[in-house]
């Protein structure tokens, strides 16, 4: 096929993000994603439990890993993660074969076929998303499945600045730098899929596949919570000690935090009900939108009129309230004061 875009390493992902930011459009059919053929979890610990063997707890964790991938796939293909929509053919295409090597318990997962199956699902299904959004979501799930799920997310506001610094760090050939680079690129994709211009379907699918990918790896880690060490090898190479394993199980995704803030926003839309206003707004200088809720019984008409005036005049307004933030992105806000 003409105009094929090779995506086989982090530099290719970075290039794709730059093209996206310049407004270029591309589709799943344009992408040839070939990160790694397999990923593996090497589990070290009690030789009675982890020497080419699979204890019952790990077997259950492997089942959870498979189930969460089924849910992510069903979300992509059918718009819901309800597994009753998963067909026998779907299960066969997405079935994971775990290979176990002796010496430690080394779980080897043929991940390339799984990514290819997600590509077909994005290509043929996923209503309500643009072709470019489908392509970017496929890159996101590919990064998550090859290691980004294990790299804690701390979204930086200055993505471009971070990438320039990491280009300098790259010369050190330091694995931590590459993992950090992967984290920033993954966050850059999440940010693009949370942008104000993104479709609601893209936001839902992005959020869903992040949750299911996190739950998948937690399933495996819960099954080996007594291990001394787990090494993950994929596009990222990550080593987890006992403390890391427990932390990942307890907090698979970045926690949502609450902050009382005053944020200057642009108003994109207002939905009114008898009890409240749901204001779709965008923080000045950012490219993603979030819902802010205004309980009308606590506000004078003069205050709520500021919202409508700002929307009509393409002006900004300041909203004080309780903001729920995850990975640097405002997910929603409950407003207690409105000002010009």
Topology summary:
Layout: E1 5-7, H1 10-21, E2 31-33, E3 38-44, H2 56-78, H3 88-94, E4 98-101, E5 105-110, H4 111-124, H5 131-145, H6 159-169, H7 175-193, H8 200-223, E6 229-233, E7 237-241, H9 242-250, E8 257-272, E9 276-283, E10 289-295, H10 301-312, E11 316-326, E12 329-339
Helix pairs in contact: 1-7, 2-8, 4-5, 5-7, 5-8, 6-7, 8-9
Strand content: 25-35%
Count of alpha and pi helical runs: 10
Structural class: alpha+beta
* Overall pLDDT: 85
The helix-strand sequence is EHEEHHEEHHHHHEEHEEEHEE
Lateral strand order in the biggest sheet: 4-5-3-6-7
- CA-based shape: globular
How would a textbook summarize the main sheet?
5 strands, antiparallel
Question: What is the helical fraction, as a range of percent?
Answer: 40-55%
The quaternary organization reads as: single chain
- How many structural domains are formed by the residues? 2
Poorly predicted ranges:
153-161
How many beta strands in the DSSP annotation?
Answer: 12
Intertermini distance: 54 Å
CA-based gyration radius: 22 Å
Keywords: Coiled coil
Coiled coil: 156-188
Description:
This protein has 340 residues and is of the alpha+beta class. It folds into two domains: 5-250, no CATH class; 257-339, Nucleic acid-binding proteins (OB fold (Dihydrolipoamide Acetyltransferase, E2P), Beta Barrel). Helix content is 43%, strand content 25%. The chain has helices spanning 10-21, 56-78, 88-94, 111-124, 131-145, 159-169, 175-193, 200-223, 242-250, 301-312, and strands spanning 5-7, 31-33, 38-44, 98-101, 105-110, 229-233, 237-241, 257-272, 276-283, 289-295, 316-326, 329-339. Strand 11 (316-326) and strand 12 (329-339) form a beta hairpin. Helix 5 (131-145) runs parallel beside helix 8, helix 6 (159-169) runs antiparallel to helix 7 (175-193) and helix 8 crosses helix 9 (242-250). The longest helix is centred in the middle third of the chain and has 24 residues, at 200-223. It starts with a strand and ends with a strand. Residues 153-161 have low confidence and may be disordered.
């Amino acid at each position: 096929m003409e105009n094929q875009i090779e995506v086989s390493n982090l530099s290719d992902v970075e290039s794709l993000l730059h093209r996206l930011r310049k407004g270029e459009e591309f589709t799943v059919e344009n992408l040839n994603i070939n990160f790694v053929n397999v990923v593996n979890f090497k589990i070290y610990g009690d030789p009675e439990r982890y020497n080419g063997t699979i204890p019952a707890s790990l077997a259950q964790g492997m089942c959870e890993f498979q189930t969460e991938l089924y849910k992510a796939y069903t979300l992509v293909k059918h718009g819901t993660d309800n597994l009753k929509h998963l067909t026998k053919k779907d299960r066969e295409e997405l079935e994971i074969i775990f290979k176990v090597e002796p010496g430690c318990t080394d779980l080897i997962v043929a991940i390339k076929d799984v990514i290819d199956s997600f590509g077909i699902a994005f290509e043929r299904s996923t209503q309500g998303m643009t072709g470019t959004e489908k392509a970017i979501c496929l890159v996101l799930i590919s990064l998550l499945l090859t290691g980004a799920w294990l790299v804690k997310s701390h979204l930086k506001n200055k993505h471009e600045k971070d990438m320039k610094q990491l280009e300098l760090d790259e010369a050190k050939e330091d694995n931590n730098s590459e993992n950090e680079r992967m984290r920033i690129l993954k966050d850059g994709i999440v940010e693009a899929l949370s942008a104000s211009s993104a479709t609601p379907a893209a936001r839902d699918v992005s959020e869903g596949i992040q949750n299911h990918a996190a739950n998948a790896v937690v399933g495996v880690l819960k099954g080996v919570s007594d291990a001394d060490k787990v090494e993950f090898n994929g596009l990222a190479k990550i080593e987890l000690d006992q403390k890391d394993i427990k932390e990942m199980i307890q907090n698979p995704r970045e926690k949502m935090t609450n902050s009382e803030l005053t944020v200057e926003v642009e108003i994109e839309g207002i939905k009114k009900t008898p009890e409240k206003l749901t204001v779709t707004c965008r923080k000045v200088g950012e490219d993603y939108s979030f819902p802010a809720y205004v309980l009308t019984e606590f506000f004078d008409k003069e205050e709520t009129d500021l919202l409508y005036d700002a929307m009509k005049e393409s002006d900004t307004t300041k909203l004080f309230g309780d903001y729920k933030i995850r990975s640097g992105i405002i997910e929603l806000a409950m407003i207690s004061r409105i000002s010009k």
